[in-house]
Amino acid sequence: MPKPKNTFSSWRRRLAQRAVHAAWAWVQRTGSVSAEHPGRFRFGALGEATRLAFPLGTVFGEPWIHLGSHCIVGEQVTLTAGLMPDLDLGPDPILRIGDGVVLGRGSHLIADTTVTIGSDCYFGPYVYVTSTNHSYDDPHEPIGRQWPRMEPVEIGPGCWIGTGAVILPGARIGRNVVVAAGAVVRGTVPDHAVVAGAPARVVRRWTPETGWQPPLRTPPPVPIPAGTTPEQLRALAELDEEDVTQKGSRTPPE
């Protein structure tokens, strides 16, 4: 036999669910970090309209972390300067993040020595950038007890770093570079390149003389003409829908 439905219990559950969601949205808004509302964090620089989403990941060494303006830092993003909290790292910033940078959820930026992210870089979720690597020179000593190696990392402006990519110590990534999802990058990457794999290698590159090689398989997107109004865009969308409907309603020839 079907069980009787408890309407009152269902109503209470829906009400409680809405209350929990509303409370969590309030916590997220209130817990986010910005220049106007930095909370306990004292970053070396925190630019205008930059926001760190709540909940944050591990954050320490803030006086040596400089974030530019109009940055978006997703939830659970780790930002650290130095090997551990409460160190004196000197007068210069260690982790520099330019203007307009987007860091995807769960990404890690570990700057034990200088890490520089150029302006307008976009990171997918769970990107890992580190300036430190473990040493394993001594075969008789546990790797975790051997002193690590540190090398500066630099990512040029305008790059797109795909989901799950790993940027290793010493990496020098040029301007407007695409790093494929899951790639492991070390060494120098030239401007206007696409790299993929582990270790990452250049799979496509643009130069003024040859353009993209190998050639792109898809046509470039057509930019919206300057001065186009929202009303005109909506009218074009309606025309496209009508065209699709008319094509779908046509009777195939016998």
UniProtKB/TrEMBL annotation:
Enzyme Commission code: 2.3.1.-
Gene Ontology MF, one: acyltransferase activity
Database matches in SUPFAM superfamilies: Trimeric LpxA-like enzymes (SSF51161)
Keywords: Acyltransferase, Repeat, Transferase
Record's keyword annotation contains rRNA-binding: no
Pfam families hit by this protein: Hexapep
Residue ranges of the region described as Disordered: 209-230
InterPro entries per record: Hexapep, Hexapep_transf_CS, Hexapeptide_acetyltransf, Trimer_LpxA-like_sf
Record's keyword annotation contains Transferase: yes
CDD domains for this protein: LbH_MAT_like
Enzyme class: transferase
Protein family: Belongs to the transferase hexapeptide repeat family.
PANTHER family reported in the protein's UniProt record: ACETYLTRANSFERASE C18B11.09C-RELATED, SIALIC ACID SYNTHASE-RELATED
Name listed for the protein in its UniProt record: Acyltransferase
